[in-house]
Backbone:
């Protein structure tokens, strides 16, 4: 069982903020978005066979299988915050992230192809981006009205 440490609403809000401006997201946005999505992943895929690490923000154990208690786990997935959020939102495919070297995955059960994107995260990102598009469309620039 995953113990939530991140307020789910704060996590969704941070994820939505990241979705509308990923290139300018600061640590104050990335940290809760990453923690929220990692906790959600571990809740949806409980277990201890794989350790997912997104330094410096968080790490969780997930996916059923052999559990480790000390030392290096038998399966590790590690990536940066922007890559993780792109994976859970569906902006980036697992295979592309591996090919580009944006994810390091080793050990049994470390292939997350079938587990990503996360439906809730994907929905949050799509909703945030759709809302931003609607605002831009409803408020055209002066140039656009001439």
Residues:
């Amino acid at each position: 069982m995953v113990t939530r440490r991140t307020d789910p609403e704060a996590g969704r809000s941070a994820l939505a903020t990241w979705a509308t401006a990923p290139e300018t997201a600061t640590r104050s946005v990335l940290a809760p978005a990453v923690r929220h999505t990692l906790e959600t992943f571990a809740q949806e895929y409980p277990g201890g066979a794989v350790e997912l690490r997104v330094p410096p923000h968080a790490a969780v154990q997930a996916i059923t299988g052999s559990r480790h208690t000390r030392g290096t786990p038998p399966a590790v997935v590690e990536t940066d915050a922007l890559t993780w959020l792109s994976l859970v939102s569906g902006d980036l495919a697992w295979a592309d992230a591996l090919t580009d070297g944006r994810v390091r995955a080793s050990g049994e059960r470390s292939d997350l192809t079938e587990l990503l994107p996360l439906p809730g995260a994907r929905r949050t990102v799509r909703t945030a981006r759709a809302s931003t598009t609607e605002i831009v469309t409803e408020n055209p620039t002066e140039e656009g009205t001439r």
